ABC transporter ATP-binding protein (Microbacterium alkaliflavum), 278 residues
Amino acid sequence: MPERPVLQTRSLDVHYGRGRAAKQVVFDVGFEVRAGESVGVIGETGSGKSTIARAVLGLVRPAKGSSVTVDGTDVTALSARALRAFRRSGVVQYVFQDPLRSLDPDLTVGQSIAEPLLIRGGLRRSAVDAAVRERFEQVQLDPALTGRFPAELSGGQRQRVAIARALVTDPKLLILDEPVSALDSANRVRILELLGILRSADVALIFISHDLGSVAGITDRTLVLYHGRLVEQGETAQILGAPTHPYTRLLVGSAPTLAGGSIDRESRDLLRTELVTS
Ligand SMILES: Nc1ncnc2c1ncn2[C@@H]1O[C@H](COP(=O)(O)OP(=O)(O)OP(=O)(O)O)[C@@H](O)[C@H]1O
């Protein structure tokens, strides 16, 4: 394993809004992800999972004193222009829950996969085409689909295209935000298998999910967020098998309800009582 983590956050605080309207949603979050590692991020709706991902991409500005270092660069210290260049470099890529959000409906899927390389520039057209073909193969898509538009594909195929597009810049860090939750169970399994294959490719993965079964299947370590705070982190088997924090115990105990996106009111009330008294 290389010495330097691909991602390191320290004292990460994020607020939304300004002045009196400012609301802190992430508090003092610190963690690392290394090359080849797959890290799950779990926590109920609104716990700050996507906000942390946005901070890694420089889409939200963390508070002073926070640091988010990606491949040796502290993104919190970059100017707006340098941040755009950082995102264009493709060192970090983000896959959304709904691939229709990340794919341009007016581009064929082949064009969509090529786009990040064309934006970054510096490659001949033949090299771009070869990279698109290679990624199609890597995500096990039929090459005959290259000329189709996103609307002409199934949800599972579209998510493969979104993953291929994310991989085409050879990212060091791939953030997957609920990548399987919009899919039916057969496609969900296929995409998880695919992500399992990608794990060996030395890409660091962050896998944000409500589905603890998926997290158990493809991550080495897991971070547990509760109201914007990192309450527990460790090996996934330990976190899901023998959680120590009361919130994680509740989350794991109510796993089936989490599939719906949020724990129920009764559990939440119980949790509050437990946390206050723990
Ligand atoms: N652009 C925004 N402006 C103001 N508040 C926001 C914004 N985006 C998110 N929030 C708030 O920040 C908190 C954390 O939201 P975030 O989307 O990071 O949670 P999450 O854990 O990813 O939730 P989910 O599982 O529903 O995606 C929530 O209270 C949310 O309402």
Summary: Residues 38 and 219 are 5 Å apart (CA to CA). Residues 1-91+172-242 form a domain with the Rossmann fold fold (CATH 3.40.50.300).
